[in-house]
Target: NB-ARC domain-containing protein
Amino acid sequence: MLLTTRNKEVAQHIDRRGFLREPQCLSKEESWELLKKKAFLGKDDLDYRINIDMEKLGRKMVARCVGLPLAITVLGGLLTTKNTLNEWNLVEENFSSYLRRGKGHEQEQSTVSEVLALSYHELPYQLKPCFLHLGHFPVDFDIPTKKMFKMWMAEGIVSPMLEGEETMEHVAECYLGELLDRCMVQVGERGST
Model:
């Protein structure tokens, strides 16, 4: 039997003789590599796009993630939509203020919570209700996209951009795509369409 938990005491309570594996946090270099993969996802010639100032800023932010892959992935998803140094500076300023608010808590837990909060607050206004609507489903539940799109439309969360230009289903697909790009949703299975 395999049990995963963030609380070591829970694992020890189940079976004191069982094998306990505690994954280590990523090193600084591994953290930076993960951030680059996420922040520059789908962009051509990865090394060409990263200027020195962006790299310094990225390394500074990723260091505050204390090697936690979830925090780094969320930060990378947030940065994937930012293409200029000014945009990265804005994220870094907001990132710093969120982390300062979390001081006094356990460092790792606080970091993840604050990065997730920043990721949510940085969402465009039209994506926030879509993301919040996902809370209706259980954790790790496979959500059929067609059903979810219909729910978004019925709730008035999704509406056509301009009359006659795009269908509401196409707008919902775009919204889901943006949530995927920001690592706010995980793809379980892709269909032929």
